[in-house]
Specification:
Layout: H1 7-10, E1 15-16, E2 19-26, E3 33-34, H2 37-43, E4 52-53, H3 55-65, E5 70-74, H4 81-88, E6 91-94, H5 101-107, H6 111-132, E7 136-142, E8 158-161, E9 176-177
Parallel strand pairs: 2-5, 2-7, 5-6, 7-8
Antiparallel strand pairs: 1-2, 3-4, 8-9
Amino acid sequence: MVVKKDYIAHHKSLIWGDIIHQIYVFDLDDTLATPDKEADRKSYFMEIDHLEPVPTMIQFFNETKSRHPTMILTTRHPDLKPKIEDMFECTVECRNFCLTWKEILEALSTDDNLNDFMTQMINWKTGVLNQLSEQYRKVIFFDDLVHRYDVSSLKDNIDLKKPLHLSDGEHPGFLYQQK
């Protein structure tokens, strides 16, 4: 594993003026790791010990992390952020909505509520990606749910990619490359 370092200092060769060339962003669930759905339901998505790494994505993630600024964007609860950072040795951004137990239980109570949560999740990730796009010339985002994003709401320098294991193990082409 690569030791965590200050990204700007570690990647000086990628800096053009005040803007870093590119950042790789990875979703956690079903992209870097496969969760045990039953364990998630029982713990209300508040545990990560059951996550099973996806070998092709972990290898790509580690190779990328050694050369480029890299982060994980997850809708796991912010209380899990330190565990995820320790597990993957990188910066992690966790959701900023559905934080209380009441909200969590309500979100999981019906299919309609779960669909609303998914919509909030996509909107939140879109907002974070758009913020990152102001700091980097290119944002490359791997997510198993790329088909759910409204690409018209993403800035031009954001590329959405399917995870490797969903692309027959080949290095995936850009699904949505803004020009």
